[in-house]
Amino acid sequence: MAIRKIRTIGDEILTKKCKPVKEVTPRIRELIEDMFDTMYDSNGVGLAASQVGILKNIVVIDADDENQYVFINPEILETSGSQTGAEGCLSVPGKSGIVTRPNYVKVRAFDQDMKPFELEGEGLLARAICHECDHLNGELYVDKVEGELEDVTLEEEEMEAEE
Q1: pLDDT digits over 19-45, tens only?
Q2: Which H or E run contains 1?
Q3: In what order do the strands lie in the sheet with 58-61?
Q4: C-beta neighbour count of 86 within 10 angstroms
Q5: Is 132 a catalytic residue?
Q6: Longest CA–CA separation in the chain, Å
Q7: What whole-number distance in Å separates Cα of residue 50 and Cα of residue 137?
Q8: Contacts 24+ apart (CB under 8 A), 98-102
Q9: Dihedral Cα 31, 36, 40, 45, nearest 10 deg
Q10: CB of 101 closer than 8 Å to CB of 89
Q11: Whole-structure pTM value
């Protein structure tokens, strides 16, 4: 479909809370396709609609488990454990920071056909779900970083996206 412009830190839209999706229209379907295209083009693991300037509760994730996930109106039901590691964000290019997140997440959402589902994720998938759901609430990972943000090269960003 199309590659959309990713909003970066400092853009006010990234601090705003997204609105629930009531129905999946052709425009919403196009947005979801564009979000996947944009995420893959930037070597990302996840992308929230607010990162492309749309204040809708929509997240796409592909955490290298051979599944593409669409979460509409996601709600985290349960978390447990913890994992601490380097995290980056397409909206904070060239930077990385150490963040502690749950190692297990259970989420309820709707898919692109507005069918409800629940999903359990661990490791990278759990990290991505938490990271992207934060975006829907106008939060960036930089507010959770332990210590300082580090500069990363494009090669390092690609390595982190593959982890």
Answers
A1: 999 999 999 999 999 999 999 999 999
A2: none
A3: 46-48, 58-61, 69-80, 104-110, 116-122
A4: 15
A5: yes
A6: 43
A7: 9
A8: 98/145, 98/146, 98/147, 99/127, 99/141, 99/144, 99/145, 99/146, 100/144, 100/146, 101/126, 101/127, 101/130, 101/131, 102/126, 102/130
A9: 120
A10: no
A11: 0.92
Identity of residue 124: L
Residues 6 or more apart in contact with residue 147 via CB below 8 angstroms: 97, 98
**AA letter at 4:** R
Tokens of 91: 């909206």
- Active-site residue identified among 132, 146, 156, 163: 132
Report whether 126 contacts 102 (CB < 8 A).
Answer: yes
pLDDT in tens, 120-130: 999 999 999 99
